[in-house]
């Protein structure tokens, strides 16, 4: 199958590209290095220095014998994206090409405008390129569990049936996000649902929770194939940040009371989920929504787990409740459904102590790269 990966240089994009190429898919990746640019501008560079996309593809080919095609360009430029679709004629598109940081989207007007324009224009362009060049192509779009927020009712998998004054209909589950970045994902969903209804596109929206991990079978072939692993307050997700903090001897930064619950998953499971979605395309005119996480924890629970795993390696890990830089519920109900991917065949890798300890050991190899100044929250809501 020809699979086009937009945002192929990212934390998820690059491991996905290698994973699919290793399984003999014909893979092309596209990226404009937006995340790398923002990381330099905000002093948020990743823990491990990554070669550029073309070099990564060469290293991967030497290590695995599998080729990944690369195109460097901006998906907000429709002429460029249209030419990529015309040339490659994808059968599936994995769309990761968005500004993914909630704190960055809140930082100031320039960052808000960039996030809104980049994310929405890219999604519009992808939908148009599919309509024009590959109308039968299956779009696998990375959404986020953050679209739903933390409502005081059970979260369904994308859709909800509502009975009102004796009549029933099915609607997208209500969405109410906690950052502008997460709000752009809601707007993406509305845009996608419009084009699915109008043009009978095939789409899967993967509502993903925070991901952790830095090891995959392909990334482990060569150190230079590692994902771009962030621990800064801009791009770092909470588990990866806590693990680096533990190695650095810095207290774990629990925001506020720490009762915030989210649905987490291992990077290995992101790869499985995307593969499962690609392997089972939806019907024309179908928007399938899958909640993509394997287990729910509070931030306090995560901090305890990291502390325990650190102790097993002789690290002294302290936990600190810092003033919450975000406006979010710190104690709330949270019960999201997540059976769709399990039904498709997902075999979860759960977060046990050995998984965290293995990550800590790997991070220790890069201890000298840790810049303490990147750890504390620098953006407030
Ligand atoms: N948190 C802390 N301490 C930290 C960092 C985060 O307590 O040092 C808390 C946050 O306040 C939040 C939770 O941990 O309650 C998760 O934060 P996060 O930074 O790991 O995740 P978030 O900003 O929501 O965004 C990340 C990805 C985003 C993805 C999202 C999935 O950056 O691209 O969409 O996870 S979700 O959280 O389900 O919306």
Question: Structural class, judged by helices and strands?
Answer: alpha/beta
Helical segment tally? 12
- Topology, number of strands: 14
CATH fold call = Rossmann fold
Largest sheet geometry: 7 strands, parallel
Q: What ions, cofactors and ligands are bound?
A: sulfoquinovose-uridine-C1,5'-diphosphate
The topology string of helices and strands comes to EHEHHEHEHHEEEHEEHEEHEEHEHH
- Round the mean pLDDT to the nearest integer and report it: 98
The value of Rg in angstroms is 20 Å
* CATH architecture label name: 3-Layer(aba) Sandwich
Task: Explain this structure.
With 381 residues, the chain is an alpha/beta fold. The chain contains 12 helices and 14 strands. The protein has one domain: NAD(P)-binding Rossmann-like Domain (Rossmann fold). Helices cover 38% and strands 19% of the residues. A 7-stranded parallel β-sheet has the order 3-2-1-4-5-8-12, with helices on both faces. A 3-stranded mixed β-sheet has the order 9-11-13. A two-stranded antiparallel sheet has the order 6-7. The site of sulfoquinovose-uridine-C1,5'-diphosphate has 21 residues, from helix 8 and strand 10.
Brief synopsis:
The protein has 381 residues and is an alpha/beta fold. Helices cover 38% and strands 19% of the residues.
């Amino acid at each position: 199958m020809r699979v086009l990966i937009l945002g192929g240089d990212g934390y998820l994009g690059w491991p996905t590209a290698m994973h699919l190429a290793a399984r003999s898919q014909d893979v092309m990746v596209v990226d404009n290095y937006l995340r790398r640019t923002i990381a330099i501008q905000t002093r948020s560079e990743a823990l491990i220095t990554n070669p550029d996309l073309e070099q990564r593809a060469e290293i991967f080919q030497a290590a695995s014998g599998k080729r990944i095609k690369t195109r460097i360009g901006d998906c907000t430029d429709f002429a460029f994206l249209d030419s990529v679709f015309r040339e490659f004629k994808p059968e599936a598109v994995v769309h990761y090409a968005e500004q993914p940081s909630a704190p960055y989207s809140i930082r100031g007007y320039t960052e808000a405008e960039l996030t809104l324009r980049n994310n929405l224009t890219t999604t519009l362009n992808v939908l148009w390129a599919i309509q024009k060049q590959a109308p039968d192509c299956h779009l696998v779009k990375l959404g986020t569990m953050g679209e739903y927020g933390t409502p005081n009712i059970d979260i369904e998998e994308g859709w909800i049936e509502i009975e009102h004054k004796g009549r029933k209909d099915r609607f997208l589950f209500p969405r109410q996000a906690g950052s502008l970045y997460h709000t752009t994902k809601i707007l993406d969903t509305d845009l996608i649902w419009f084009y699915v209804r109008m043009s009978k596109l095939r789409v899967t929206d993967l509502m993903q929770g925070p991901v952790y991990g830095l090891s995959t079978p392909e990334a482990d072939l060569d150190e230079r194939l590692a994902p771009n692993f962030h621990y800064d307050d801009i791009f770092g997700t909470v588990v990866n940040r806590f693990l680096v903090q533990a190695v650095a001897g810095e207290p774990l930064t629990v925001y506020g009371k720490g009762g915030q619950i989210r649905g987490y998953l291992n990077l290995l499971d992101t790869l499985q989920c995307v593969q499962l979605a690609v392997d089972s395309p939806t019907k024309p005119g179908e928007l399938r929504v899958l909640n993509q996480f394997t287990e729910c924890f509070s931030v306090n629970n995560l901090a305890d787990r990291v502390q325990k795993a650190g102790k097993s390696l002789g690290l002294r890990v302290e936990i600190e409740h810092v003033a919450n830089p975000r406006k979010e519920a710190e104690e709330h109900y949270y019960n999201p459904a997540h059976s769709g991917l399990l039904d498709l065949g997902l075999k979860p890798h759960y977060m046990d102590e050995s998984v965290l300890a293995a990550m800590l050991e790997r991070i220790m190899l890069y201890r000298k790269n840790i810049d303490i100044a990147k750890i504390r929250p620098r953006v407030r809501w």
